[in-house]
Specification:
The protein is mostly helical. It has 5 helices and no strands. Keywords: Membrane, Transmembrane, Transmembrane helix.
Length: 199
C-alpha cells in the first residue's frame, strides 16, 4: 500500500509541460472571447425583452391601485440600471481587437473581471432587493383577486424562486464566469509571454 501511495504522489507531482503554438492559443482565445461577447449580447437582449414585457403591463392592463404602478416602475428602473451596467461591461470586452492590441485587451479583460465581480457581489443584492420590493408592491393588488390558497401559493413561490436564484443559481453562475474569465486572462498572459520570447 505504501508503494502505491508513493507512486501516486510521484504521479501527482510530475508535471508535463504542454507545448501549444501561439496560433493555436490565439484561435482558442478568439473562440472564448467571441463566446463571452455573444453571451453578453444575449444578456443585454434578454434584459431589453424583460423591460418591454414588464413595461407592457403598464399600458395594456388597467390597474386600480397606485402600488401596482409603483411596483412596475421600480422593476423597470432595476432592469434599466442593470442593463446599463451590462452594456458597460460589453463595451469593455468588445472595445478593441485583441489580435492587434493584446496588452490593451488584457487590461480591459481584467477591468471586465472586476466589473463582473462587483456585479455579482454588490449590484446583485441591490437588484434582488429592488425586484423583491417591486414585485411585492405589484402583487398587493394582483393577489387580492385570487383565492386565499392561490395567494399563499403565489407569495411562497415568489419567495422560494428568489431564494433559489440568490443562492444556487447565483453561485453556479459566479463560479463558471470566474473560471472562464480567469482562464482567458491566463491564456492572454501566456500568449504575451510567448510573443516576447519569439521576438
Amino acid at each position: 500500500m505504501q508503494e502505491f501511495d508513493h507512486i501516486q504522489s510521484l504521479w501527482q507531482s510530475h508535471s508535463v509541460e504542454v507545448k501549444i503554438s501561439s496560433d493555436e492559443m490565439l484561435a482558442q482565445a478568439k473562440k472564448e472571447v467571441n463566446s463571452i461577447r455573444n453571451r453578453s449580447i444575449l444578456n443585454i437582449a434578454g434584459m431589453a425583452v424583460s423591460f418591454l414585457a414588464v413595461g407592457s403591463l403598464w399600458f395594456f392592463i388597467d390597474f386600480h391601485s397606485w402600488t401596482t404602478y409603483a411596483g412596475i416602475l421600480i422593476v423597470l428602473l432595476a432592469i434599466a440600471a442593470l442593463t446599463i451596467i451590462l452594456i458597460h461591461g460589453h463595451r469593455l470586452i468588445s472595445k478593441n481587437d485583441f489580435t492587434t492590441h493584446p496588452n490593451e485587451f488584457l487590461v480591459r479583460l481584467k477591468q471586465y473581471q472586476l466589473a463582473r465581480f462587483s456585479l455579482y457581489n454588490k449590484m446583485y443584492w441591490i437588484y434582488a432587493i429592488t425586484l423583491t420590493l417591486g414585485a411585492g408592491l405589484y402583487l398587493i393588488e394582483v393577489v387580492t383577486y385570487m383565492a386565499l390558497w392561490a395567494q399563499v401559493l403565489m407569495v411562497a413561490f415568489t419567495l422560494l424562486w428568489m431564494i433559489f436564484c440568490s443562492t444556487l443559481v447565483r453561485k453556479a453562475v459566479i463560479k463558471k464566469d470566474r473560471e472562464r474569465i480567469a482562464l482567458l486572462i491566463e491564456k492572454f498572459e501566456r500568449l504575451g509571454s510567448q510573443f516576447k520570447t519569439q521576438s
